[in-house]
């Protein structure tokens, strides 16, 4: 028996009702497979449907066409089993709870006993030891995002969905967070789907990068990232890295879509 991919989208289309009364086609014929333990990054212009894909995989919304499965079943099954971690651009922490209690929130939502040893281990993993009792407003933006990632990991998810988790951070902090995330992913090997605007972030972190077209979003190209792991910051200075970064950036520029004739949608 072949193992189904961790995440599979087949022929997925998504239409939204528009204010004007018509419909907006957000996604068209999207086919994506993510293997168990794989790290895939999704890049594409604003409004191309990246967040919509994450919402479909999380079971927060349903496709208008095609099918989305997670571990071969309905996405809702995984989120109901509390095996799905989700972190957003804005850390969305509870301001009245300290860091430890924020990270422990999913235990309460899942109705299971809080495992404070697990919380402590995650605080260590994301490098926030010493800040257990701080409140979110006492932390920097990068530290808050680390809390959000720890919270997304606390129930040991089988699938981790990250929607521009570092989008609001300055370039230096974002780079540090990329290193942290690589370290965390290497330690947990959680299947991860990351949405990002930053091509360098996608290339630094992912096993594969999927490039999406403007609305309606389709997957134009899937790039297998050729760099070994662990990846060090020095990789960002290598010529091979820049060559690939340029190639991906060009694929994202709308005018370069005359080149779209060459970039065939993947079947
Ligand atoms: N609930 C909704 N109702 C109506 N339209 C929606 C809804 N959610 C998304 N859309 C539309 O679907 C398209 C894709 O939206 P989505 O948020 O997935 O894009 P995105 O790629 O994540 O963009 P960004 O990079 O700006 O976050 C947009 O045109 C958006 O207006
Ligand atoms: Mg989005």
**Main sheet strand line-up:** 5-6-7-3-8-9
Helix content: 25-40%
Q: Which structural class fits the helix and strand makeup?
A: alpha/beta
Overall geometry: globular
Mean pLDDT: 90
**Which ligands appear in the coordinates?**
adenosine-5'-triphosphate, magnesium ion
Question: What is the end-to-end distance?
Answer: 24 Å
CATH superfamily of one domain: P-loop containing nucleotide triphosphate hydrolases
Proper CATH architecture of one domain: 3-Layer(aba) Sandwich
In terms of quaternary structure, what is this?
single chain
Order of helices and strands: EEEHEHEHHHEHEHEEH
Distinct helical segment count: 8
| Top CATH class of one domain | Alpha Beta
Strand content: 15-25%
Topology diagram in text:
Layout: E1 7-17, E2 23-34, E3 39-43, H1 50-57, E4 65-70, H2 75-80, E5 84-87, H3 99-110, H4 116-125, H5 141-153, E6 159-163, H6 171-188, E7 191-195, H7 199-205, E8 208-212, E9 219-224, H8 239-252
Parallel strand pairs: 3-7, 3-8, 5-6, 6-7
Antiparallel strand pairs: 1-2, 1-4, 8-9
Bound molecules: adenosine-5'-triphosphate (ATP) and magnesium ion.
Adenosine-5'-triphosphate binds next to strand 2 and helix 1.
Q: How would you explain this protein's 3D organization?
A:
With 267 residues, this protein is of the alpha/beta class. The protein has a domain at 7-83 and 157-251: 3-Layer(aba) Sandwich (Rossmann fold), CATH 3.40.50.300. Helix content is 33%, strand content 22%. It is built from eight helices and nine strands. The chain has helices at 50-57, 75-80, 99-110, 116-125, 141-153, 171-188, 199-205, 239-252; strands at residues 7-17, 23-34, 39-43, 65-70, 84-87, 159-163, 191-195, 208-212, 219-224. It has a six-stranded mixed sheet with strand order 5-6-7-3-8-9, with helices on both faces. It has a three-stranded antiparallel sheet with strand order 2-1-4. Helix 3 (99-110) packs parallel to helix 5 (141-153) and helix 4 packs across helix 5 (141-153). The longest helix is centred in the last third of the chain and has 18 residues, at 171-188. It is globular and about 50 Å long. The two termini are 24 Å apart. Mean pLDDT is 90; it is low at 256-265. Adenosine-5'-triphosphate (ATP) is lined by residues 16, 24, 26, 44, 46-52, 215.
């Amino acid at each position: 028996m072949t193992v189904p991919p961790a995440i599979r989208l087949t022929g997925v289309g998504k239409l939204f009702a528009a204010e004007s009364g018509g419909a907006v086609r957000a996604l068209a014929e999207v086919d994506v497979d993510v293997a168990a333990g794989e790290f895939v990054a999704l890049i594409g212009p604003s409004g191309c449907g990246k967040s919509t894909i994450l919402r479909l995989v999380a079971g927060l919304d349903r496709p208008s066409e095609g099918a989305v499965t997670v571990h071969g079943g309905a996405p809702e099954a995984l989120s109901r089993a509390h095996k799905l971690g989700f972190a957003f651009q804005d850390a969305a922490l509870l301001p009245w709870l300290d860091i430890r209690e924020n990270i422990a929130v999913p235990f309460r939502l899942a109705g299971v006993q809080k495992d404070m040893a697990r919380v402590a281990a995650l605080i260590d993993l994301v490098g926030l030891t010493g800040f257990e009792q701080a409140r979110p407003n006492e932390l920097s933006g990068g530290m808050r995002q680390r809390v959000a990632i720890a919270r997304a990991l606390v129930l040991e998810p089988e699938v981790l969905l990250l929607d521009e988790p570092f989008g609001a951070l300055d370039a230096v902090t974002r780079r540090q967070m990329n290193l942290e995330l690589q370290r965390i992913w290497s330690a947990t090997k959680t299947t991860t789907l990351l949405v990002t605007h930053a091509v360098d972030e996608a290339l630094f972190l992912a096993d594969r990068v999927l490039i999406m077209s403007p609305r309606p979003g389709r997957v134009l190209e899937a790039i297998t990232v050729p760099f070994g792991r662990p990846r060090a910051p020095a990789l960002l200075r290598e010529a091979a890295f820049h060559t690939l970064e340029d190639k991906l950036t060009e694929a994202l520029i709308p005018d370069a879509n005359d080149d779209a004739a060459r970039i065939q949608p993947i079947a």
